[in-house]
Amino acid sequence: MAGISHLLGEWRRDLLSRGRSQRTVAGYLKDVEAFARWWERTTEREFDPCAVLRDDAALYRQDLLGERRQRPATVARALSALRSFYRFLVARGTVARSPLDGLPLPTAERGAPRALQAAELRRLLREAYASGNILHRAVVVTLAYTGLRAGELCSLHLEDVRLAQRKGELVVRGKGGRVRRVPLPAEARRVLREYLLVRGDVPWRQLFVGQRGPLTPGGVWTIVRTLARRARLEGVTPHTLRHTYATRLLREAGADLVIVAELMGHRSLATTARYTRPRKEEMEEAVERL
User: What is d(CA 86, CA 91) in angstroms, rounded to the nearest whole number?
Assistant: First the structure.
């Protein structure tokens, strides 16, 4: 597999230049490397992307779903990474066509993504306020009231924050370099003003800066998970707060699907529509009330 390290390096740079996050790129590379190792085991040859057949891709899909019993969503992600890699190879002329062409991705009916209930969100915010750390408070409140991805939050610059007395907004650079404007409700404006007062004059353009420099997506995950543990909440990540934001807009605020898709930076309304589906726990609770 060492023979493709230069290709993986070029692909990595290409993905980053297209606005993919470091976390996404690392996941893609891991998936392609896993396929390369599988191909070498099954063919007893050094991995050669030009020698991969469509049957190889189909057998790999079957191996993941059948032998390894991986979830359809996990397999779909792995195959999507391979598709992206081969699109890159076709574009640069390394291969004539992708062995993934025409290979269907496994699908599974999914309910709404996990979102915090109102009481759970209050517990998390209570811990954020009680922590005494204004940066941590600003991070959690901004995520909860804007639905930003962790990478988007870390990409915010000072000039991306527009605050007035009765309104405010963030200029957000999302996936693929697309820019959107997300309004800030009163509580988010208040907390961001408090944070800006203590941020100080630091030599970085990024909005959120810690003691060691600009905040990273990993740092955001650590902040959220730490506060969630203190609030006795399990499995809470920055993306959980993103899901919570979308769910509250649709179910509590009664926002239009098109508006929520724009606020979330979704390309497809089908992605946003997932938040209108009932979760398994909600269906079970409804049945228990019979």
Answer: 8
